Amino acid sequence: MAETRDLLIEIGTEELPPKALCKLSESLLQELSHGLQAAGLIYGDLKGYGAPRRLAVWVQALTVSQPEQVLERRGPALAAAFNEEGKPTAAARGFAGSCGVPVEALESLKNEKGAWLVYRQRQQGAPTRELLPAILAQALQALPIPKPMRWSDLPGEFIRPVHWLVLLFGEEVIPATLLGVQAGRETQGHRFHHPEPLYLTEPAAYATLLETEGKVLADFAVRREAIYTQVVAAAQQMGGKALIEEALLDEVTGLVEWPVALAGQFDGDFLKLPAEVLIATMQDHQKYFPVQDEQGHLLPCFITVCNIESQRPEVVVEGNERVIRPRLTDAAFFYATDRKEYLASRCERLKKITFQEKLGSVFERTERLAKLAWHIAKDIGGNGDWAKRAGLLSKCDLVTEMVTEFPELQGSMGRYYALHDHEPQEVAEALREQYLPRFAGDVLPRTATGQALSLADRLDTLVGLFGIGAPPSGDKDPYGLRRAALGVLRIIIESGLALDLPSLLKRACETYNDRLTEKNTAVQVHAYLLERLRGYYLEAGFRPDEIEAVLAVRPDQPLDFDRRLKAVASFRKLPEAESLSAANKRIRNILRKSGEKLPAQIESDLLQDPAEQTLATQMYSLEREMMPLLERQDHRATLTALAGLRGAVDQFFDEVMVMVEDPKLRANRLALLARLQTLFLQVADISRLQA
């Protein structure tokens, strides 16, 4: 049984970026795991810790050295290593000499490929304590740090200056210097509650020592749960329910080491402001958790999470209340000022804002959106005039005082101001819905006008950027085109909109007039959207071959693609599916290899064999049956009907020779197969389905 010890690694820093803390902690755990495995070191469990001033990993039951290795070096073949008398040849003696051993110390290696002389040498594994500094250095180098820092004249770069380093292997400190800091066994507690160093005797004591003496909850998940529980309890004491967004909860968890939730209040008159304004002020600016009543209406109170257990919490609450009051006062002033002017009157100011240097101003963009949204609304049965109006007003709130101060409220404030100006309700809703979906899994626009404007917005961006030669490249997507493409597909598919992508893209290109410099922009964007469609359905759980089967026929409507794909997934469960898929592969290969020009029509008098007559008769009958099914895009029923051909197809290939010498007979049979293939391709290329 190999000897093992626990290992504790802690990098103590200045306050880490709160939004990046969780990812950094997870990455360090992952990179260390990769490094240990690559070195051949065996361990039990890994436990990661992440707090504002530290990243740490506890490795349990880590072997004290690499396992013993057997190095194998292959020499000459046995036939060349010994002569007829069994004595070693010059090749054998030379190989043994290069290994530093006599020929008698060599062994033989035999397998199905042959037999050779081989030298095997046992090598003791390196001690873990000698390997760890390099493994840790490599792990730190691999962390996702976009802008590493340098400090003082010390070597190395990291996301924040490093102040202490713990490398404790069992009860032994591993001597190492990383990022300008020498390793030891002392950690630091809370900056104010316990500013003195804490002495670590063993790795297993780390989290408990920090919590009980250092006033630090080092475990990110434990700290997050503590914050959640305290915030919920504090809101209940205020007679309400806390509004807890996951992103804010993670950020606050990254801000505090010893969380203490406190409840504060603000003047109830501020509740006259739009709820989005109050929530943005509390969440985005102050990192507070808003409080709602049972009906979902905001209450004039908030929950703040402090990083200190104050002896006078009422003073802390008073300070937070004093901070939020002027912010809400400013918001009320912005709201009142903005409503003194009609939203539409701000359009002219958009001429001074550049959308993209080669694509013109935001004002020009709203004109394009108005035109495109009008067409889309007409196509989906909406009100074209409302969509056009929404397009013209879509970006006007960008030049309001409120959105200048709270950029995250764009769209939401446009809705409020449009309603104040007595614009149609659906036009106002569309100003907010144009930004939906904002992220994967987000809600979609509900109104037809909102759907039209949201699609127009994303299509305009895609066509514009592709049209000037600025598509996404690798991991770089500065304009969010991947998100825009997925938004287009989700809106069309999940909202059940029968929209034709090539037509939409052609119209979007036309709104740019002569600004686009790339050729075939619509074709490029269409290909990009189809690629996004593949990822969308893979994530939804469909198999790659099912997706490829539908992509092969390139349906123009994403909604039609959706129906075809679901039909293929259902079809493959039928007992006839495997046989028909194999038959279609065979048909494709025969037609490809024949290279012959096929007759336009199948000649009935050339159908001599009973099996081909039966296949033709059933195929003609099925064509008539499929016509109404295809018209209403009932692809599942179509493929189910096609499954009825299995017997006739199997019989045809069992009894009929296609590539006969008679050219007319051969061409007629090839034409029969081509027509059969076309019948299946009305839905998908099922030959691409794998067994």
Describe the structure.
- By secondary structure, the protein is an alpha+beta fold.
- The longest helix has 26 residues.
- The model has no long low-confidence stretch (mean pLDDT 92).
Number of helices: 25
Number of strands: 18
Radius of gyration: 35 Å
Helix percent band:
40-55%
Query: What is the terminal separation in angstroms?
Result: 46 Å
- The pLDDT mean sits at 92
- Poorly predicted tracts of residues: none
Q: Which structural class do the helices and strands define? A: alpha+beta
Q: How would you sum up the global shape? A: flat
Strand content: 5-15%
- Tell me the major beta sheet: 7 strands, mixed
Describe the structure in brief.
With about 700 residues, the protein is of the alpha+beta class. It is about 50% helix and about 15% strand. A hairpin with a 2-residue loop joins strand 5 (about 105-110) and strand 6.
Give the secondary structure arrangement, pairings included.
Elements: E1 4-13, H1 21-38, E2 46-51, E3 54-63, E4 69-77, H2 78-81, H3 90-99, E5 107-111, E6 114-123, H4 128-141, E7 162-169, E8 172-173, E9 177-178, E10 181-184, E11 186-188, E12 197-199, H5 206-212, H6 220-237, E13 241-242, H7 246-253, E14 260-265, H8 275-285, E15 289-292, E16 298-306, H9 313-338, E17 354-356, E18 360-361, H10 362-379, H11 384-393, H12 401-405, H13 412-420, H14 425-433, H15 448-467, H16 481-494, H17 501-511, H18 521-539, H19 544-551, H20 558-571, H21 577-594, H22 610-631, H23 635-642, H24 646-655, H25 663-680
Parallel strand pairs: 7-10
Antiparallel strand pairs: 1-3, 1-7, 2-3, 4-6, 5-6, 7-8, 9-10, 11-12, 13-15, 14-16, 15-16, 17-18
Helix pairs in contact: 1-4, 6-7, 8-9, 10-11, 10-15, 10-17, 11-14, 11-15, 13-14, 14-15, 15-16, 15-17, 15-18, 16-18, 17-18, 18-19, 19-20, 20-23, 21-25, 22-23, 22-24, 22-25
